[in-house]
Design brief:
The structure holds two protein chains of two kinds. Chain A is of the alpha/beta class. Chain A is built from 17 helices and eleven strands. Chain A folds into two domains: about 1-130 and about 305-365, D-Maltodextrin-Binding Protein, domain 2 (3-Layer(aba) Sandwich), CATH 3.40.190.10; about 135-305 and about 375-415, Periplasmic binding protein-like II (D-Maltodextrin-Binding Protein, domain 2, 3-Layer(aba) Sandwich). In chain A, strands 1, 2, 3, 6, 7, 8, 9, 10 and 11 form a nine-stranded mixed β-sheet that branches. In chain A, helix 8 runs antiparallel to helix 10. The radius of gyration of chain A is 24 Å and the shape is globular. Chain B has two domains: about 1-30, no CATH class; about 65-290, MetI-like (MetI-like fold, Orthogonal Bundle). The chains are: A alpha/beta, B mainly alpha. The interface of A and B includes residues 66, 68, 69, 97 and 395 of A.
Amino acid sequence: MRASRVLTLVVSLVLASGAAFADKVSITLLNTKGEIQAPLESAAAAFNAENPGITLEIQPVQVGQSPFQVISSLYAAGNAPALYMGDANDMMQFSDKFANLKGEKWIKDSTDNFEQVTTISGAVIGFPLTVEGYGMIYNKAVLAKAGVDPAKIHATKDLEAAFKKVEASGAGALVIAPMDWSLGSHFIGISYSLAAKNQTGLMKLVDDLKAGKVELSKQKPFVGLLDTFDVMKQHNVRKADALAVTYDDCPALIGPGKVGFYFQGNWTWPQVSGFATDQDGFGFIPVPVSNVSSDKGNNGIPVGITKYIAIDKTQNSAAQQAAAKKFLEWLVYSKSGQSALVNDCNIIPAFKNITLQPKDPLAKSIRQYMSKDATLFWVNMPAPDHWSKVGASMQKYLVDKIDRAGLYKEIQDYWKALK
Amino acid sequence: MQYRHGAGRKIGTFMMFAGPATLVFAVVMVLPFLYGILLTFTDWDGKAVQLSFVGLANYATVFGDAAFWSSMLLTLRFAAFTVVLTNVVAFLLAFALSSGLKGSSFFRAGFFTPNLIGGIVLGFVWQFVFSRVLPVLGKLIGSGALSTSWLGDPGRAFWAMVIVTVWQYSGYMMVIYIAGLTSVPPELLEAASIEGAGGWAKLRRIILPLLVPSIIICVFLTIQRSFMVYDLNLALTGGGPYKSTVLVSMNVYQTAFLSQQYGPGQAQAFFLFLIVAAVSIAQVYFGKKREVEL
């Protein structure tokens, strides 16, 4: 008797909650940019408040997990998120699972031609989320004290002279971040960018590398950049144990002015700002690739779209896809969305209509290069483990375990071994 | 109620008690294992809907993969040192703590605690010790070997991993050895003393032979754990510096998820399984032969 009463109660509760769920559309966004998890969650809360029929949840990726592994397991489990934040490679890999966003409002308002990268067979599958750039970050106070004008550094010998002046003034010249992704993806990416010039050039260069037709020792962008790297190695303030430096050590050196220079991207601003004595005293200069001041590589920094958001069409209903598209529109066109994107997540937006811009000095520096059209093409390497394997080779070169010829050989062998 | 007789009743009882656990084991371990072996004969890339059979191509790739075999060799070297050192340290600790010292229980608990700390946390704690604490100490006492981070050099990073693994597992093995030591009948040892046997002779002729079952278990556990290590590898060295400490589990993970080659990655995992199974079975078989019956 009692059991049947409890059963009735349970069943009616389930039916009641089922009815309530039927009104709300529930979608998830898989966030692969760990540093913006908290601001994204408050953005989701704001969006949910403005759209009572939609519940957006932000799903993080654990430290050490590869985004590719997480999204593959979610698809395999039948649990794919409605919105996936991935880089250009992920967009291409999973293109058959993503919805065509061709008719969306924000396409005409986007800045550079991002479609070059995320248009597959006529369908636009990626919403450009973040514009980022990297180069040689300098500390204004340190350079001013040493009598160095960063605007005049356009050649490897200029940079070397700057290092020596900074050292003479009592600070360290620079610190090199030895992480494989920093050296193997961003740093060496400058050479690839100058050698390839654009996406089509990059695909051709990669094909030639895979066929073994390229001799890096004869490629000026590679030779020149690595010559600059030699100078950097010599003046590296942590030369004695270069590989023991961690990502967290570097902001503690550049922020308070213990070193004058640091190669990294604008994504490191939250960490540097924590240590910086002058919140406005930083900027980017290009990493010189030759001694000819007018060379393109000596006057521009790589700037590009690093993260895209795609909408899944295979495991999310039409209502969920519509809700996801609404969120993307909200980010671009609503005041609260724009504020969440720019002010909270500290992202440089890829849209012309957004007048809000990040206030941090690194973002301002990037926007200066963008306005002068002094940017280099951002390389999206069409090989998922390039950063790890070539990064390891760069690390060996950093501690002189291999010489320049050995480094060229390892990079060439890496490409030849790829299928 | 009808009583079933004979085999039917036995099976019924078995299903009632062991059924759920067997079912879970079959679904969670056996099925994925068999499916994984099936996948090694296809060209699945982790997300495609269509599968096509490629025969033994993935196994051929693994045979020709120098990185896999060098990480396997490194793992063998790592396992050899770890197994020997862990068991020696554990045995010595167990011997010291079962001789009736005051406060043995406290020490036993203390030595067991490292085993309770998970691999990732352990790795990060020791990474901090090796890269920040030891260099400071090294500069203070003027020791060249200690004043740079151990994790920046392939040879020393390898020994860092061995040290942390031995530290983590000695306590667990010590507990097993203590159980073995306390089950040695004291009358035997007394009789040996009366007949004039010294401490060393007693150890060699009475204690060690009677301890063979514990030794078999401990060696089996340390072999399995040191071959399959991944979380410590990831947190302590991350495979660095420049991929010189990538052990075989990490190599499998990187092939499958970093280089996005599922087929070869799964084939490598299967090789690892075969090798560990062969070593473990051989070890247990030869160990059992040396067991002494009381």
